[in-house]
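Re: that chain you flagged

S.,

Sorry for the slow reply, it's been a week of failed gels. I finally had a moment to sit down with the sequence you sent. For the record, here it is as I used it:
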Amino acid sequence: MDLDRRRARYAADILGSTGVENPRVEAAFAAVPREEFLTPPPWRIFLPGGVIEKNTSDPSELYADVLVVLDRAKGINNGQPSLHAAWIAAVDPQPGESAVHIGIGTGYYTAILATLVGEGGRVAAYEIEARLAALAEKHLARFPQVTVHAASGVGQALPEADVIYVNAAATAPDARWLTALKPLGRLVFPWQAGRGGAVTLVVRRAAAGFAADPTIAVGFIGCVGAQEPPAASAGRDPRETRSVWLRADRPPDATATAVYDDVWFSSDPV
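Prediction finished late last night. Pasting the structure tokens below so you have them in one place:
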């Protein structure tokens, strides 16, 4: 089977495994050649759960639901395609929208986002590891709508965005991620509310605040600069979270599920 056909089957398989129907996201995964947005071969690929499978230089083996090592010493990988397909479908980037991607690695999922927003959109892409950022900039040069920043996406002002896509675990979102969201904007990141793993948190900006929806458990490397401990204890289960607030807008109250210096989480819906 040639690579184009294999990539199309891979795209259908990973979307199918999520239970989500999104023809645009499936088409983007079918269009972007994964092998062109990684470190040079041979690639070390493994299944979710950390079980190492093999080294390979065959690009066809990348078209399975496998992770690919980008920096073994630092634990940085090109993550599981089905997870990213589900996340991207959840925030559903539209043609002409603006996106911020934090923790881009070597640019594969950035290329998917760029394909979805199209030439009329834009993607501001951040990678703190200089070697990976240099590779990503080279890989993404074909997308004029993408700007790569060899810098952290934490602790600095970000451009206004319809979508913010974070690929490193945070104990709490940087307040600047929330304030950068446009009305109806969507943020997704791995929320590491306690010890151990993280859960996917999808945040949507509404007129009255930021609605939050914790969903599937995930495992991600920690986000540098976004690993602050809680500023205060909260009596509720983090899984009850339904909204997130800037402390400057609303002080924490009895609905708090987690409280940090600049933001807090609540069981109140927006």
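What I noticed first: The chain has a mean pLDDT of 92.

Talk soon,
D.
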